[in-house]
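Action item from last week, closing it out:
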Amino acid sequence: MNISTRVTIYQPIILIIRACVYAGRYMRQIKQFSLTLINYERMKNMSKVSFDTERCKGCSLCVGACPKKIVALSKEKMNSKGFHPAEITNQNACIACGFCAMMCPDVVIRVEK
């Protein structure tokens, strides 16, 4: 068996080994991506924002601070002080960043992650 015959015989085996190595790399990336998606889904379902509507004075600082634009002043509700309190319009879209809670001067917003 000469050298050229050995290269021809082993060439498909080398290609298969290379394919397995590349597939392993991609499988690791796919696994990591799927774990990231699972963690995102858990965090999305776990995050919750709650407002103490009786203490809210409706200053709307939290409305401007929300990056998802899901905090708004209530048009129908009024608290005992006569203010329209802030409320969250879409709880599922909340990313629990806490910007609204940081901006609130009366500390009426609680973010749970």
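Closing note: The mean pLDDT is 78.
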